[in-house]
Amino acid sequence: MALQNFARRAFWTLPSSFSRHSSGHDARIICNRISVNWLSSQSEKWSTKNRLDLNGTSTVDHARRHFHTCATRLKKDDLSRAQMAASMPKQDEGTQGENMLDVIYDQQTDVFPDEGTPNRLFDGIRFADLPICDITATPNNTIMTLSNSAGIVKSIHSCGREGFKNTREGTNVAAQATAITMALRGIAFGMKNVRVTVAGLGPGRMAAIKGLTMGGMNVISITDKTPIAWSSFPRPKKRRKL
Amino acid sequence: MMGQHAKFIARTVLVQNNDIEQACRIINRIMGSEGWFDQYRRTRRYEKPFMARRRINFEKCKAIYNEDMNRKIQFVLRANRVDPFPGC
Question: Where are the domains of chain B?
């Protein structure tokens, strides 16, 4: 009888699917019967499955969430999530060879510029007078600017202008296609040999340089001009929540 | 940062025989091994002081461990020993 009273009290807390669809006394009786059965089954479960030990941790039932944890911790401990994350391919930042161990460049003396490089001739043009192709590779887009040695901009092109929209802008395929178009334009301007500067880490970082050569341009040098801050002001945005 | 250095001299690689892949790899490798990319990635979002402390402590511990481990490896691999297998 005490159990039935408890069940009557628990009536309003039961799921609405079997309590709220009909009205009045009959519904209450039906619900009492259901809830008594439900409660007895639950109490059996609780007594056997959800026994709490002194540390407050459940001994058997792993499906039920511990009271001292939270969604973020559960996500962190979820093995299947970690496995999935490990199996995902590494995001392309255009930094292939970053962790490579080789000494090839040590044997090549001509790889790095020296004091004579600005006056060195490439197809009859001084290195310092060569046109410049600036590439800004961000995770979401790649923007390319073609200018002469004085910095006068001749042409600007980006993955968005090339016809790739939204997330497709941030792919190496888009960057390569954009660079090919850019190279064709540059050659039309008479800019066959270019110096390339790249800024930022993104999928277009390497792909764009490759695209320039595919379009027929001759890349003389590659400069990294990623803006790296050692004391960041203004303070960057806060981290994204997991 | 770049304004203080000569443009097209600092952080520049000349392409050899039109091999841009190799040139990219060289510049990526140097930038990566000297920690420039790490610094760039780290400053995209604010690093809270407690995170900076934790990271620096971890780096210190790692450096100490690596130093000792290298010393140990050098000791085991040392050449020109009077007795090649001491204690055997």
Answer: 1-45, 47-78
